[in-house]
Amino acid sequence: MKKYGHFIDGKYVEPSSASWIDSMDPYRGEAWAQIPQGNSTDADLAVKAASRAMTEGPWSKMSPSNRARLMIRLADLVEQNADRLAETEVRDNGKLLAEMRGQVMYHPNWWRYFAGLADKIEGSVVPIDKPEHFTYTRLEPVGVVVAITAWNSPLLFVAWKCAAAIAAGCSVVIKPSEFASVSTLEFAELTREAGFPDGVFNVVTGYGPEIGSALIDHPDVAKVTFTGSDATGARIYAQAARSMKRVSLELGGKSPNIVFDDCNLDAAASGVISGIFAATGQTCIAGSRLLVQNSIKEAFTQRLVELGSIARKGDPMSPETNIGPVTTQQQYRKILDYMEVAKQEGARCVLGGGPATDASLPGGQFVEPTIFTDVTPGMRIAREEVFGPVLSIIGFDDEADAIRIANDTIYGLAAGIWTQDMGRSFRMSAAIKAGTVWVNTYRAVSYMMPFGGMKHSGLGRESGMASIHEYLETKSVWISYDQNVPTNPFVMR
After folding, report:
1. Which residues are catalytic?
2. pLDDT value at position 493?
3. How far, in Å, CA of 21 to CA of 38, rounded?
4. Taking the model in full, what pTM does it have?
5. Domain membership flag for residue 214
6. Helix H or strand E encompassing 49
7. Which residues contact 295 (CB under 8 A, 6 or more apart)?
8. In a 3-state reduction of DSSP, which class is residue 111?
9. Could you tell me the keywords of this UniProt record (predicted)?
């Protein structure tokens, strides 16, 4: 069993507590690696290293073009190590190797894209209305960034957060989930190999209350970016506000997948299955609320049941597997609890509805892909994020009905619309309150497109050209070339 250290100031170091946390393989149900149990001392070391990199080290003097070269070199290294990194993620979180390899192979695009933006961060000259003044703006790195990532796609979140931050000239301290830290610790070595100066990229691991909280409170941290649940995000937001830190949050969802009776039914059924059963439903963009036009509701439900019933559960490393284990015991129990709540509230279970009992499945963390129908919008199963392969089917009559139901939620991360009516696709896309709307597709992401939520689903955006401004401050500069002394120094100029 490999034992890892924190990655601080360009090297691996043991935790000051001399304590480690077992990293569990959710498929086998056994520990396979150990990560440091960090505390406030480790947090302080990492933040101070990041701060030195920004103020004293070569990073502070490096040109944007040279930063970009390092980022491109890092992208190449990720590609060269993609298989190893993907397998590491599977051991940590139990998601399918096909999905994690795809994510890791796509990961370098963020580094290359933002490398291309690094030397295009430009202020502007302002044609000011005050005579004999030259004024301009500068865009400067916000400072040390703390990035707290979730366990379902660790390296993808590293790319989403850190590529933009580093292109902007910031240094970063990553605190990955204690349930899936190993791939981020392995990735850290690649930043050193790529030539990043010491302190630019740091990784500390451990439990949120012990080290995450210390990172958020640290006076040298300027910005916190977090991916996770809305409840945790709200606590981080409140904590960061006490020291006026910048914050961006990518939080939970209860995304509506809306199927109209004029759609391509085969494509819609495939998209709905992908939206809820892919990644064992452990994704913030899961299309967990299926809104189906009543004219096709029964037939479409039956089609989904047939597709869902043939999903193969098993070893996530196998290309034959469709459904892997739930990543954590805590999440496994939560999913089962929600299934029971749905039954008690009157939802009708037409597929699954409990733990997977196949004796050939080790680890004890598999659940059956589950479909509930006869769901009403007020049921908890339709309002709260389950974060598992549990689909709630709700009928609707027309566009207005679909919009009302879709927007009746505290969340606003994503939505899907399935229709062949072009006018409807535009009307619905404008009416749905969500940060991303997919039409006739689902779960598509790109380094070029902004991603983030409305309402309880978060603040700020990741990816896309505008996201680099999440890590920049605007400074206004006034230079007077007036040779005359002001006649009255006691009034505003």
Report:
1. 250
2. 82
3. 9
4. 0.96
5. yes
6. helix 40-55
7. 261
8. helix
9. Oxidoreductase
